[in-house]
Amino acid sequence: LFLSISKDFDDLSLSLKTSSWTGDSNYDGGWSGDTQHFENYFVNFATTYFLEKHSIKAITNIQSNRSTEYFEGSPVSSGSLSKVNNKGFDLSVNSLLNKNYSQTLGYSYFDERTATQSRYNQGIHWLGEISLNQSTDLQLGLRRDFSSQYGSNNTWSSGIVRRFGSKGRIFANYRTSFSPATFLDLNPAFYNP
Questions:
Q1: Integer Cα distance of 136 and 104 in angstroms
Q2: Residue 55 main-chain phi, psi, to 5 deg
Q3: How far is CA 133 from CA 100, 104, 129, 136, 166, in A?
Q4: What angle do CA 58, 61, 63 make, to 5 degrees?
Q5: In Å, how far are 50, 53, 88, 148, 164 from 47, measured between CA atoms?
Q6: Three-state SS annotation for the chain
Q7: Counting Cβ atoms within 10 Å, is residue 36 exposed (0-12), middle (13-18) or buried (19+)?
Q8: What predicted TM-score, i.e. pTM, was given to this entire model?
Q9: pLDDT per residue as tens digits for the range 2-26
Q10: Average pLDDT, the chain
Q11: How many CA atoms lie within 13 A of 9 on its CB side?
Q12: pLDDT reading at 73 higher than 50
């Protein structure tokens, strides 16, 4: 099940997305044995407020994943339950400083919890864009992340955008990245069959 609703007003844009799915998997490859039951839901809410030369964007995410392992033929309630809950928040401000230069400053936070573990990641980022002429822009971005599990990391990005009329554009980007493994990445019980 997936639902997406969005509404634009004069100076405000709102968006809500939500999804839910359940499923079962026999992960013994067809042999009589262990089975998993999965449940997942996700909610994303985003809003953007537009001022004259600025915009403020806020996004929040909530996700819950449950996996129950049980012996084939037994009730799901007889199995062992694993849960991962996470939530995130992003806030960014974009400013057009003059007709040739804009920049975006932002902050993000992500929290992940199981019954026995929790961790978080937070980051600040900056993106600058300068127009060289009517059809070419250069971009440069910097980001600093702090992970409670992996420590601090710095990343950067650069890019060029070339516009062709009002509908065509081509771009090239180069960036470094850091993305800590999530509990879902480390726990095969949560893979979508």
A1: 19
A2: -140, 145
A3: 8, 20, 12, 6, 15
A4: 180
A5: 10, 17, 14, 28, 30
A6: CEEEEEEECCCEEEEEEEEEEEEEEECCCCCCCEEEEEEEEEEEEEEEEECCCEEEEEEEEEEEEEEEEEECCCCHHHCEEEEEEEEEEEEEEEEEEECCEEEEEEEEEEEEECCCCEEEEEEEEEEEEEEEECCEEEEEEEEEEEECCCEEEEEEEEEEEEEECCCEEEEEEEECCCCCCCHHHHCHHHCCC
A7: buried
A8: 0.76
A9: 999 999 999 999 999 999 988 877 6
A10: 87
A11: 10
A12: yes
The pair of structure tokens assigned to 82 is 């694993």
Name residue, tokens 């493994």.
181
pLDDT tens readout for residues 86-134: 999 999 999 999 989 999 999 999 999 988 889 899 999 999 999 999 8
